[in-house]
Amino acid sequence: MDTKQLISEAKMRFNHNSAKSYLKDKYDSKLSVATQGGLWKATPTLIAVLSAYDEESIVLIDEYNNPILVNRLALLTIIKETYKTVMDAWATEWAILEKKR
Amino acid sequence: MGNLREEKMTKGILLFAFNTDKVDYFRMAVHTAKRAKHFLNLPVTVITDDSTDIEKYNFTFDNVIIKPADKSNTKDLDIWINKGRYQAYDLTPYDETLLIDTDYLINSDTLLKVFDLYDDFMCHNNTSYLMIPNAEQEKLNTNSFNTLWATVIAFKKTQKTKMIFECMRMVQENYEHYLNLYNLLGLSFRNDYALTIAHRIVNGQTEDTRDYIPWNLVHIGNNTIAYNDNDSLLNTSYTIEYDHWHNGKIRKEYGIVTDTDFHMLNKTNYMELINE
User: Fold this and answer.
1) Which numeric CATH code is attached to B11-218?
2) pLDDT score of B2
3) Where do the domains of chain B lie?
4) What is the pTM of this model?
5) Roughly how many angstroms between the first and final C-alpha of chain B, as a whole number?
6) A87 inside domain
């Protein structure tokens, strides 16, 4: 190994932007939920919409832009659970990677 | 009264592995099969030609299908045996198939989710490159639409999917025509292009977004090197090294990837990974 290569290796840095991008790819895939005849992505917006209504059933547009009649509370339960599980794992892994230099 | 007994649909993985002088694709297939069995718990069928000495790999696939290799394609002046992928529809022994490239490294059970999400066909339409955030999506040509990726295809045997694979065959057999028609980049036949064109034709030149896997296909590019973080066959943690050119200098960067499936574009690096 020559001096240039040694210096280059010593200066090697963890790329935090890449890590953010990789984590987004990784955990985005876990936010998709197929249930009640539609495809949903567990997002704060979906949770807010589901929480804002009182009705037992409502019609929502799914990820494929189809209107789907859903059981509101059943969907809310699954979406909230998925969102929390994924976000907890995402935050844990980010906390580890954030410390890398 | 309806039939109460529902027949269980069979699910499995299909791999194409034709060895060339430079790349041991069957070795890759064995590695992929071992990981697929562990992470996805699905049977694996491999399609290869009679020149492969299967015994020497010391691994038993659930099915081995022998088909002649079509050696009429080249890439970087070497033979590239990637033609004939359209045969997947007829050759698969499964009702629901995951057709996966042998250089796709399975590190999780994420792909199982596709079976819950799809109607009868799914592939990737979006990609990302590890260590290169915001990399542009590949297009058929500079003014055209995004390329679909044949790296991972999930399909059931339906009339629509049959048409997609038959269309892929048509594109392959008339590739020069489609090369000119779509002004495709490069001269080598690519299954990604055949799939993109076939999918468009079958859907009346429109996009059917239901057929797209709702997360990105993650690539490890040619200028990026992956290292196993441990010696286990079922290792799922990798250190990724990348030479970032900045102001005429190389700045070495690294990242760590765990429990994430990815597609290795650098076959030499992939062989090093699986031989470690």
Assistant:
1) 3.90.550.10
2) 43
3) 11-218
4) 0.91
5) 59
6) yes
CB-neighbour burial class of residue B25 (10 A; exposed 0-12, middle 13-18, buried 19+):
buried
Distance from C-alpha of A2 to C-alpha of B191, rounded to nearest angstrom: 42
Nearest in space to B220 (alpha carbons), one of B240, B237, B234 = B240
A7 assigned to some structural domain: no
Q: How far is A56 from chain B (nearest CA, A)?
A: 25
Contacts of A45 (CB under 8 A, 6+ apart): none
pLDDT tens for each residue of A33-86: 999 999 999 999 999 999 999 999 999 999 999 999 999 999 999 999 999 999
Q: How many domains does chain A have?
A: 1
* Residue B112, min C-alpha distance to chain A (Å): 11
pLDDT at position A5 over 80: no
Q: Do B252 and A29 touch (CB under 8 A)?
A: no
- Which residue stretches of chain B have pLDDT < 70? 1-7, 276
The first and second tokens of residue B171, run together, are 């594109």
**Which two tokens mark A88?**
């907890």
Residues 193-232 of B with CB under 8 A from A: 209-210, 214-216, 218
